[in-house]
Structures are given as C-alpha cells and as structure tokens.
Amino acid sequence: MKSFTARRPAVALGVIFTFLLAACPLIAPAQSRRQQPAPSQQKKNRRDGQQPQQGGNQPNQEPLPPDVVGSPQDEVISVRSTLVNVDAVVYNKKSRQIITGLKRENFAIFEDGVQKEITNFSTPDAPITVALVLEYSKGLDTYGGDRFEPGRYEVLKPAAMFLTRFIQPPNDYASVIAFDNRATPLTDFTNDPNRIQSVINLLFRSYPSSSEANLFDAMQFVLMGGRGDAVVLDNTKERTADYAGLVSVQNRRRAMILITRGIDTFSKINYGNARKVAQNAGVPIYIIGTGNLFFKKYGDQLPAEDGLLGSVQPGRMTILQAQNALKTFAKESGGAYFPVTFDGELPGVLNSINALLRNQYSLGYNPGDVRDGKQHKITVRVDVDGDGQFDDKEFIVNARQFYNAPKG
C-alpha cells in the first residue's frame, strides 16, 4: 500500500491558491445561501430501536458559515456551471513525496487536448469540509468479522479514527452519513468535537436494520444533497430534513471519505449514473475498501456467483466488480482507493488520506458555452522546476479526469 509524505520542491515557486477540502476546489462565487435545515428529528434510532441521548448532554452544533454552503439540491445528476473546478495533488513517482509550494504558473489544464486558461487557483491552506460516508448494513456482519467482533467494526474503527485524529476544529467541518437501504445523516456539517464523539458513540452502540446497501444512491445524496432522514442527534418532531451536498460547499476544500465493501444492492440510480454524479461533482472521493478484510481470508471458499435471491453472501465475481467500481470512482474524481486487508493497515491508510487532503491545489477554468451533452477529458500537467517543460516522467498529478457538459 502506497503512503504519501509532503515536501517542498527545491525550486521555490510562488502564488498560492486556496484549496478546497481534499477533493474539490470550490471557487464558484457564493451567490446562494444555505437554508437552515429544518429542526432535526428526535426519533427512534432506526438501527437499534433506542432513543438517542437528549437534553443537557446534547452538544451545540456550530453550523457552517452562510457564505460556505449553498442551497441543497434534490435528485440532481448533472452539475451545470460556468467554472470547472479541478483539485490536484502532485507527487513524485518514485519517492511518493507530495510536492508543495507550487504556483499557478507551474500548472496547465487541457480539455480534450486543448489547453485552457486557469482562471482560479488556490494553495492547500483553505479549511476542509469532509463528508464521511459509512456502509452500515447487516451484510457487513454476515460478510465479515469473526468470533471476537462483528463485521461492522471493520467500518466503524476507521471512521472513528479519522474523526478523532484528523478533523481539526474549529476550521474543519465534518458530516457523517450512514447508509443501508437509504442514506441517513447522523450529523450535518459540524465543527463540534462533542457532537462528532456523539456520532461515534451512536454507531458503536447501534445495530444495522437492513441487509441492503444502496451505495450509488448514497453517493448521489452526499454529493448533490437532497431530502433525507432528520439528523438523529437533534431533538425535533420533523421526520425529514434538507441535507446540503458537498457541491454546495464553497470557498473551502471538500472531499468525500467513503468506507464500504463497494457492493450495491437496489439503488434507484445505476452504476453509469453514479459515475456521472462523481465526475460532475468535482469532489475527490477517498475510499477505504473493506472488502479485502474478508475476501483475502475467505475468498477461495466463496462461490463464483451470488447465491439465491435475497442472500447477503456475495460471490467472488460480485466482490471483484465492487472493487473495480470503487477504483473507478476514486480515480475519475481525483481521489484515491485504499483496499484494506488487515486492521494494522488502517493508521497508514488514514495518514495517507490526510496527507492528500491537506496538500491539494485548487484550480478552475471556464469551459466556454459548451452544451453538447458530451463527456470531456480533463488533463492536468505540471512543470515543477519552472523550466518551461512538463515533468510528466518524474511527477504524477492526481486530479479529476472528466466533466459532462450540459445539453441544449
């Protein structure tokens, strides 16, 4: 498994850009303002039938500033914008060291092979807003784990480690969404450490209620926003609330951290639409694939194909297809995919994700009035030493690869 460290290039380069949360530069002007979410619901925890803690022990959540989040969007698959945002991490091919201290002049963006003017640029010093997305289904316990702890702990442990070690209040914000047959925000964007700890405690004391894992629907919900279950940590009579997706976050770095096996059961959207959502959102997706924790141990004992309809035991082919899908989502969005085989790998994986998040440059360009409804290839190249030659042989630029133009 590759790890990443950061260093400055030998040649100092100049202008610095404010980047967005480890995955998607947010440079669009903040014209829309986020509506305050409807008061969240105090309801039974649908996962374990227990009432969430309330009263004086409830932490006070600090909402994102009004100029950071726009209005939530419902059931959107494409993003129409006059600015294409591209977050980029540059690292050395051999040493895996992340390169910092670069300027606008060190980068070039090409769309379908044609160079575009970089109109927006910021360096990796902007605050981070991250959505942590967890698969939380009965399939986890059946599919993984052992006699000492249930399979869902394979998801909960990296989630808890990330929230407690790498989210740095008050500047960093995190939202936590768990999904089985539907996506449920456990907390909206918050920078309150007590609230984050409450989410961790809730997850560890709860039990999944469904065997389904609608990954593609959850990705669309988290990236684009929409109407979801009310935030379960709040006292409210409302059953649903608006969730502002990551595309609405502005003027800060953004990223999705996804912890899942990658298996989708009955999502309303298909894999192709999920790819378009990830391509258009411009938000880097960093994925911890938990399938290997089980597959490496028991893969030889699994059938080639899935069992009977309704079985939660997937076959080898389903697992391999899920892993390929996760690799695609990560690569095309400019994020990274980390398959985890042993628990001891988690600290290194989380350190690598944190390094990537904290060292992304945010670039943007105007694609022009393109409304052909087609997919366009994005390529970012870098001239690290400023000699006028692109350093493709020595350095790698990790960035989103496509955007889909609107039609008509």
In short:
The protein is of the alpha/beta class. It is about 20% helix and about 25% strand.
Return the string of H and E elements: EEEEEEEHHEEHHEEEHEHHEHEEEE
CATH level-3 fold name of the largest domain: Rossmann fold
* Count of domains: 2
CATH class of the largest domain: Alpha Beta
What Rg is obtained from the alpha carbons, in whole angstroms? 21 Å
Total of helices: 8
Quote the average pLDDT.
76
Shape: globular
The largest sheet has its strands arranged as: 9-8-7-12-13-14
What is the end-to-end distance? 44 Å
Task: Report strand %.
Answer: 15-25%
Q: Which secondary-structure class do the elements indicate? A: alpha/beta
Which architecture of the largest domain does the CATH hierarchy give at level 2?
Answer: 3-Layer(aba) Sandwich
